[in-house]
Amino acid sequence: MAKCGGCGPGYKSPLDAMKGPREEIVYLPCIYRNTDTQKPDYLATVDVDPKSPTYCKVIHRLPMPNMKDELHHSGWNACSSCHDDPSKRRDRLILPSLISSRIYVVDVGTEPRAPRLFKTVEPTELFWKCDLANPHTSHCLGSGQIMISAMGDPSGNGKGGFILLDGETFEVIGNWELPGEAAPFGYDFWYQPRHNVMMSTEWGAPKALANGFNPADVKAGLYGQRIHVWDWTTHKHLQTLHLGEDGGIPLEIRFLHDPAASEGFVGCALPGTVFRFFKTQKGDWAAEKVISVPSKKVEGWVLPLMPSLITDILISLDDRFLYFSNWLHGDIRQYDITDTRNPRMVGQVFLGGSIQNDGPVKVLEDQELDSQPPPRVIKGKRVQGSPQMLQLSLDGKRLYVTTSLYSAWDKQFYPNLTKEGSVMMQIDVDTVKGGLKANEDFLVDFGKEPDGPALAHELRYPGGDCTSDIWL
Question: What is its EC number (predicted)?
Fold first, then answer.
């Protein structure tokens, strides 16, 4: 945690955060739903301090009290948006459950290396007070409240609304959005108060994606392809940006970290594109496609064309580099976004995926590669699955990656992943010229967990990071 003489949590600015201490532990949810282990999901604490005797090891596991929650993403009770409030502490991790719709509040302040469960918000609270379910992204607000995006209604239909929690009691207050103004689908969101705006994205209807992916559901309109623009002060839904077929399933959305910036990026899973969104001279908002990853013509796969499936995206704290993972092709890419309208790829590394040269898939036409990449083996372990969730160190020099997307899709696309468990890897980043290289001495193997192979998902540092902190 930053030491700044009476200041609140986090850092004064994104550039101050880059000077913060090196990460020593990370928290990440581990999922047992859709695996052979009939146990609750749990929060793992992993030692990432190279000087520590327990480096690269899970040092603590906090099991949840219920089964098949599908822990997914996490957020904080307070972050840099509360930096000017010395009464606030970043000491509670908010863990929404994508399938059960529970929200767990975890005490990470008392013993950071041994978190304990503080409170459980039951699904009925979300159902009855908000008519919402399937909570996803959690952000703390400058007001001290916590806001969580929802993906559906209690029946599993798509509904993109937002749940407000009290930041002290963690009781459900109600909806953030105005009555009748929820979006058709929900997923991620990011706010930028200086422009009085919030942006949200769309995954799909929970009942369509709960047990796997069916391409027919896309044609049936059960997956999204829009960005929603909201007035941050009045909570009014202002605009819908239709991305079309080039922007199917827009997932992670990131404003630039500079709180004065009026632009950002969103990664779209199908067909594998990145859109830049921006404020126009008129004062409204627009979006344009700036990156497109070509699909590969293949045989031996479920479809004749394999999209990249961009599933996670993040921006370095200095707003210089953008990173994303291609969960089907198997690579992570680094782009120089100094010119935000013309991102330039400067780094790429393959870590698994569906087109490895010893697998069942044969690539017939490839607009980018001359040959199929070999399998990736780190510390004697063959990487199953593909790079998915990303987290960047504050200084931008280390990129951490896990390989699980979502248990039902893991089981469908990478069945060995649910049998052998996911891994956590570390990528060394060249922050001068650009470039990515796997650290061959770093691997956390969740296939060797005491209760059986687990699926590790999103990563969080105790002191905040570039995907959870928002500056005002």
Answer: 1.8.3.4
φ/ψ of residue 426, rounded to 5: -130, 135
In which region does residue 17 sit, left (phi positive, over 0), alpha (psi from -120 to 50) or beta (all else)?
alpha
Put the strands of the sheet holding 362-365 in their side by side order: 305-306, 296-299, 362-365
In angstroms, the CA 292 to CA 390 distance is 19
Predicted model pTM: 0.97
Alpha helices (runs of H) in 77-202, residue ranges in sequence order: 123-130
Whether 456 and 447 have beta carbons less than 8 Å apart is answered as: no
Backbone angles phi, psi at 394, to 5 degrees: -60, -40
Helix (H) or strand (E) holding 59: strand 58-63
Mean pLDDT by runs of 10 across the 472 residues of the chain is 62 95 98 97 98 98 98 96 91 98 98 98 98 98 95 98 98 98 98 98 96 92 97 98 97 98 98 97 98 98 96 98 98 98 98 97 98 97 97 98 97 96 98 98 98 98 95 94
| Structural domains of the chain, with CATH | 14-456 (2.130.10.10)
Phi and psi at residue 44, to the nearest 5°: -95, 140
